[in-house]
Amino acid sequence: MLKVGIVGGTGYVGIELIRLLANHPKVKLESISSVSYQGQKVEDIYPNVLNIVDLVCESSDEVINKCDLIFTALPHGLSEHIVDKCIRNNKVCIDIGADFRLKSEDVYKKWYQKDFEIKDIHKEAVYGLPEVYREQIQKSIVIANPGCYPTSAVLGLAPIFKNKIVKPDSVIIDAKSGTTGTGRNPSQITHFSECNENITAYGIASHRHMPEIEQTLTELCGGDVIVSFTPHLIPVSRGILSTIYVQLKESPSIEEIHDIYKDYYKDEKFVRILPLGQVANIRNVTHSNFCDISIHYDSRSQRLIISSAIDNMIKGAAGQAVQNMNIRMGFEEEEGLMLIPPAF
Q1: Is 289 found in the same domain as 197?
Q2: Burial of 273 (C-beta count, 10 Å sphere; 0-12/13-18/19+)
Q3: Same domain, 54 and 84
Q4: Are residues 159 and 291 in the same domain?
Q5: Is residue 305 part of a domain?
Q6: Residues 157 and 108 in one domain
Q7: Contact 74, 7 (CB under 8 A)
Q8: pLDDT surpasses 80 at 183
Q9: Cα three-residue angle 95-230-256, rounded to 5 degrees
Q10: Could you tell me which of 267, 243, 246, 268 has the C-alpha nearest to residue 257?
């Protein structure tokens, strides 16, 4: 059994990791850490794991010492030194924060107002989007788990960018997320009376996931990509729906485009290309590691419209992290992740 631990185990992503790992047949959840709850039992913080997970929150050093693979589920800027300790102790680390997602230090500094403090470890990091970087993930000691919005957006766009049939400056991404995407610590916009019966756009033209999306799409097509990306907060607990508008270089039929998507994802266990005429929605992926994608064509504007739906806490965070662990450790990729979404 692989001994795994979580640094930052009591946030929303942390408890989702606990839930998934506790049911994984190839691993033992050995240790978790929490600055806010150190010394407290996990079951006292989250009663849903009562009599299932009996761990007590420890320090991050104890997690690293006890475990073979470590997940870091921390806000940006806090993972770098912990990941460095993991590397020096020859432990594989999957970082669910933003510290290792961007390859350029200049870009990272622009969007996160921080430098790379330990520059060498950034060279070790691989971007952990399995459907694009699976081979690199298999060999890496540091895996940068993608952000939730980039996961939904890039999976929706990867086939047409890889086939270089989209105009790279034409991408408009309108994405909507449930409130768990903002984390467990409350803020004004997540207060019930603020978000209930409301939809709010935020981070307009300035959201930190925008350069992450552009970085991956640029690598896929081999040329510079600029996207317009606007996220919205909607009054549901979980889920992301990205509605993406692009213009193509050519004029293939919708059937030909649909075939491109089906062929690109034909061997992927967690990406489901819906039949033409169906529309992706968050209900059909909730509590699962699936990404549902539907393809539509507006003949009047000559725009391709893609709908991409994920659960932001699973495929957008904890589930994808477990998927990365499975790939890296040579397990079956679907181990512990074949969760069927509830019908209602």
Answers
A1: yes
A2: buried
A3: yes
A4: yes
A5: yes
A6: no
A7: yes
A8: no
A9: 90
A10: 246
45 and 58 Cβ atoms separated by less than 8 Å: no
Quote the tokens at residue 6.
């979580």
Residue 18: which domain range? 2-145+315-329
Say if residue 194 is in the same domain as residue 139.
Answer: no
d(CA 35, CA 129): 29
Residues 103 and 221 occupy one common structural domain: no
This prediction has a pTM of 0.96
Token look-up 């590691």 returns 289
With tokens 């999306």, the residue in question is 213
Catalytic residues, by residue number, are 148
Count: domains in the chain: 2
What is residue 321's predicted lDDT score, i.e. its pLDDT? Answer: 98
Cα–Cα distances (Å) from 317 to 82, 326, 329, in that order, read 19, 14, 18
| Same domain flag for 8 and 66 | yes
Residue with tokens 């990509």: 225
What's residue 159's pLDDT? 98
3-class state of residue 241 by DSSP: strand
Q: What are the angstrom distances between the C-alpha of 110 and each of 79, 247, 274, 330?
A: 19, 29, 38, 37
In a domain, 339, yes or no: no
Structure-token pair, residue 88: 């020096």
For the chain, what percent of residues have pLDDT higher than 70? 100
